[in-house]
Fold this protein.
Amino acid sequence: MTITVTGATGQLGRLVIEELLSQGVSAARIAAVARNPQKASSLGVAVREADYFQPETLKKAFAGTQKLLFISSGDTNERQQQHRNVVDAAAAAGVSQIIYTGILNAETTTIALAADHQATEGFIRDSGLPHVFLRNSWYLENYTSNLASALEHGVILGSAGEGRVAAAARSDLAAAAVAVLTSQDLTSRAYELGGDTPFTLAELAAEVARQTGKPVSYQDLPEAEYAAALKGFGLPEQYAHILADADSGIARGELTTASGDLSRLIGRPTTTLAAALSAVL
């Protein structure tokens, strides 16, 4: 059974391939799809060059694939066309199952970022391919990897109110993908993947303060003010608005879940916020 992973040079893709190899999957059974093959040369598996914008390269890259992990594009401008190209190529190549990394609560969320994921799930359903939707919550790393400013100024900004986010470690989400990729089950289904213990941004700030011994608090802002602050920090305007809109989604409860799907798939409790912060700090 050949397992093909798109976006293989990204942070999630690399972790998936590392996890596959650590689980004893033969390197000969794994294909890494990358736009720049040189960046994938260190992965230790076969590399297939392809670009989401070039359908002919995708069909060639997917040849002989039984299970395809389709990691969503990071391009928020033309993502739907890229994703349609991937799905069409997967169908043309005759893959046995397509596993797509989307967004938590895709069927109900109103977060702007979700529109592309909702459309892609539709493309996949329409293709007739057996499929699994890995509906991922926010990465814990979104909160743990950029703490310098919070520690310097003693504040974490956001517009999530008292909403909880079921953030999950990227490594846990990679392990969940591997559990599906190595299963013989071709049943179509969706998993709502999030951390076992959702938290508020005020709780995030309190945990940072506890572990560092420095005063850190959460300052809640209206969505527009938060977007303006992010833009002031140097983020592109479009991305700033996407993040602020997502925080409003958190406030509405759209990035949390009590499904337990993630811990069941990986066979252990999910990584806690405290553990993730400790590893970084």
